[in-house]
Design brief:
This is Plexin A4. InterPro entries: Ig-like_fold, Ig_E-set, IPT_dom, Plexin. It holds the Pfam family TIG. One of its GO terms (molecular function) is semaphorin receptor activity. This protein is mainly beta. The chain has a single domain, classed as Immunoglobulin-like (Sandwich), CATH 2.60.40.10. It is built from no helices and eight strands. The strands form two sheets. A five-stranded mixed sheet has the order 1-8-7-3-4, with no helix packed on it. A three-stranded antiparallel sheet has the order 2-6-5, with no helix packed on it. It is elongated.
C-alpha cells in the first residue's frame, strides 16, 4: 500500500521474472514505472492514483506473456503532519 500521490516502491515476486526483454506493470489503467528485476522479483515505482483511495488491480506483462494473479495494491490517504514541536 502507498499514498495516492504516488512514489511508492513496489516489489513483486514470482519466478523467471528475468526472462524476456519488455516489462510492463500496470496499476489499473496506469503504468507503474519499471525500475529493475531479477529471477524472482521485479520492482517499480507507483504514479499518483487517478482513481483516489482504495484497491486497484495490478497486472504484469513480460514481452507477450500476461502474468495472471489476483494482485491488488491499496492507495491510501497521503501522510499529513499535525504538529511540530
Amino acid at each position: 500500500r502507498g499514498p495516492v500521490s504516488g512514489g511508492t516502491i513496489v516489489n513483486i515476486t514470482g519466478s523467471h521474472l528475468d526472462s524476456g526483454s519488455n516489462v510492463s506493470v500496470m496499476f489499473k489503467d496506469q503504468p507503474c514505472t519499471y525500475l529493475r528485476r531479477g529471477g524472482q522479483w521485479l520492482t517499480c515505482r507507483t504514479h499518483a492514483s487517478l482513481h483516489g483511495y482504495g484497491n486497484v488491480s495490478v497486472s504484469v506483462s513480460i514481452d507477450k506473456a500476461q502474468l495472471q494473479k489476483d494482485l491488488q495494491f491499496e492507495y491510501v490517504e497521503d501522510p499529513t503532519i499535525t504538529k511540530i514541536e
